[in-house]
Amino acid sequence: MNLLQTHQQGLNYEHNQTNKSIHETNSSAITYTNEDIFIKQQKLKEEAKVALVLGAKMARMQIGLNGNGNKSLTIDLLKEMNIGQLQVIINELYCRIEINNDKLVNLLIERDSLSMEQDSILVDIEDLTKRLEEHGATLSKQ
């Protein structure tokens, strides 16, 4: 079961609980309008978003991920983590992969540029060597 399915099940459960709560309160003469339910749903969504953002930050702090990658992730450590913490690690690794790919592309471009510059310098050296040999031959004939 993936994270999206788990989230959807949680939403379905909340919806069922809300409906159950509405039916129970209707019997005690308190009624909720659709607008009240929508407002409550919006608040819950906002709280969930905040929890996700804070959860990612907390997970990152708990597992000690930093830019240097000094902490090694062992199998035992990974087994103890929840899905949120593992997702943070995956996202961090994807980010590092993208950064390293960009660095690699830039280094390859620089290498090609330096290789072309080296070829140009070698051609110039070859031309100068030929000119010196020709000039030396001309001087020796005189």
From TrEMBL:
Which keywords label this protein?
Coiled coil
Any one GO cellular component localisation term in the record: cell junction
Query: Could you tell me which InterPro entries the record lists for this protein?
Result: SCHIP_1 (IPR039045), SCHIP_1_C (IPR015649)
> Pfam families given for it?
SCHIP-1_C
Pinpoint the Schwannomin interacting protein 1 C-terminal domain residues. 13-65, 70-141
Coiled-coil positions: none
UniProt-listed GO biological process terms: positive regulation of hippo signaling
Q: Which domain of life is it from?
A: Eukaryota
What is the name attached to this protein's record? Answer: Schwannomin interacting protein 1 C-terminal domain-containing protein
Organism source for this protein?
Rotaria sordida
